[in-house]
From TrEMBL:
Identification of the protein by name: Lrp/AsnC family transcriptional regulator
Coiled coil, from the record: none
Record Pfam families: AsnC_trans_reg, HTH_AsnC-type
InterPro entries per the UniProt record, alphabetical: AsnC-type_HTH_dom, Dimeric_a/b-barrel, Tscrpt_reg_AsnC-like, Tscrpt_reg_AsnC/Lrp_C, WH-like_DNA-bd_sf, WH_DNA-bd_sf
PANTHER family for this protein: LEUCINE-RESPONSIVE REGULATORY PROTEIN (PTHR30154), TRANSCRIPTIONAL REGULATORY PROTEIN (PTHR30154:SF46)
GO molecular function, one term: sequence-specific DNA binding
Organism per entry: Mixta tenebrionis
One example of a Gene Ontology biological process annotation: response to amino acid
SUPFAM superfamilies: Dimeric alpha+beta barrel, Winged helix' DNA-binding domain
């Protein structure tokens, strides 16, 4: 698959909002037959345009209600230090996402832990336990407002409940 057309874009958008849509449901929403939607979905998967299907689980549901954002600056950018940091990030289960960034920090980590004590231990491990890390700066997430393109709360006075809003198609 080399080119993505408007039908493919619509399928990608719909699946991004709801990965559980059947080919028949896609057919109704896109205006193609179910078999055409199936072929297009398979092509998009094979072309690595669809990277997977998963359930978005609330961190609290698995005992990881504390989210932190950690900026990391490396001592230097030799391939040895970079590869070492990448390996550590891959092996550390508390690190949910890693982004290589511009600006003062080299990386931004999103972490999920059970408690402030666990966050403190993770930060100590990053700073003291890893030779490639020169500096970290941490922020604790107080409230998740919008995540993965979806509003998470009803508003500033909410009690933290999740409200899933459909994006305009």
């Amino acid at each position: 698959m080399t080119q993505i057309d408007n039908y493919d874009l619509k399928i990608l958008h719909l699946l991004q909002n709801n990965g559980r849509l059947t080919n028949q449901e896609l057919s109704d929403l896109v205006g193609l037959s179910a078999s055409q939607c199936s072929r297009r979905r398979i092509s998009l998967e094979q072309a690595n345009q669809i990277l997977g299907y998963h359930a978005r689980v609330a961190p609290e549901a698995v005992g990881l209600g504390m989210i932190g954002l950690i900026e990391v600056r490396l001592i230097n950018h030799t391939s040895d230090y970079v590869e070492s940091f990448h390996r550590m990030a891959a092996e550390q289960n508390a690190i949910v996402d890693v982004y290589k960034t511009t600006g003062d920090a080299d990386y931004l980590l999103k972490v999920a832990v059970a408690s402030l004590t666990e966050l403190s231990a993770l930060i100590s491990e990053l700073v003291a336990g890893h030779r490639s890390v020169a500096h970290v700066k941490t922020a604790v997430v107080l409230e998740r407002i919008k995540e993965h393109g979806m509003m998470m709360t009803a508003g500033p006075a909410s009690s933290g409940s999740v409200r899933h809003e459909k994006r305009n198609e």
